[in-house]
Amino acid sequence: MFTRAEKGSTEESENHSDGDADGDTDDHSEEEQSEEDEDSLIEDLSKLRIVDLRAELKKRKQPVGGLKAELVARLAKARQNDAE
User: Which residues form the SAP domain (predicted)?
Assistant: First the structure.
C-alpha cells in the first residue's frame, strides 16, 4: 500500500507524462488544424447551391462545369490559393 504522500507523488508523475514522446505535438496540431479548416471550408461550400458555386467559380475565372462535388473542391482550392 502507498502512504498518502507516496500516492500523491505517483499521481503527479503520471500527470506530467501526458505529452507526446517525440516532443512534436505542435507539428501535429498545426497539420490537424489545417485539415480541420479545409474540412470546414468544404462543408460550408457544400451548403451552397450549384448556381452559387458556379457564380463564385466564374468570378475567379475557373471552369464552371462538373458535378457539385467537383465544383466544391475546385472552389475550395481556388479560395485557398487566394488566401496564399
Answer: 45-79
